[in-house]
Amino acid sequence: METTVSKRQIYVDLKEMELSPSMQAPIVAYQDGQRKYYRYSREGFSIVDLTDDELLGLDATVNMLASFRGMPQFDWMTDIIRKLKKKYKVSENQRNILSFDSNVDLRGIDRFKELFNFIINEQPIKITYEPFGKPAFDAEIHPYYLKQYNNRWFILGYNPEYKDISVFALDRIKKVDSLNIDFIQDTIIEDPFDYFFDVIGTTIPNHGEVEKIVLKFSPKRYQYVLAKPIHHTQKTDDNTLTATIEVIPNKELEAIILGFGKDVEVLEPEHLRNEIIEIMKESCKKYGLLKNDCKSPQ
Fold this sequence. Notes:
This protein has helices at about 5-20, 50-65, 75-90, 110-120, 190-195, 220-225, 250-260, 270-285; strands at about 25-30, 35-40, 125-130, 135-150, 150-160, 165-170, 175-180, 210-215, 235, 240-245, 265-270. The protein is of the alpha+beta class and about 300 residues long.
């Protein structure tokens, strides 16, 4: 059914704009032949002008956005900041007071804006992807989401070949082409937080199951883990200096555990404990220390 607006409703709305304390619109009418027009008497007036507190918040936001400038994936911020400053007469603190952890020299980061636009425009793409140590291959992707982990960016999308979500690191993408086909809407990820709820990083192993991971820390490193939890499921025990998380084990979890070095011991599960032991044995081989259970040669 067609929706229409009566003249009476328009006049009521115009009067409301004039009398409302929150708008106080300076509306004037002028005649041009048989037609009557309405406009603001003050140039540049807008009913969406911000309060002093809102302007103060916007001022802080502009300065935060300015911190992204210089990063290739956020070069479009410059134009947005300019428009905000002009529209709302906000200033920009020339001294940078925020710093974000980012690798501006990361290979493939120049594709961020292009892939971002493909997601926004719901544009299917074909990428040429070259994994580490393996031949390059082509993949059709219906892109849904960009995720950063450990200073690397990843794009996630539906892969019709596997009928599931595939994850690709931007630094391994060699070529991107748009495809003239219908876009497949996202019915899998929907909420990225829920999708990655049970893992650390971006890798979700096939047929992986959530397991209880128990890690014992040295006293000093335990304080670090208290301040910076490994995962949002983390529970700690001050008496045993242990942290327990419930996740699907993956390579990212192993990397975090290995990053703690001698300050952590995997108590559970046994298969993960053994996996870390094997990795450490391989490391010992590289340093020639495996002659006596990873102890220095006598």
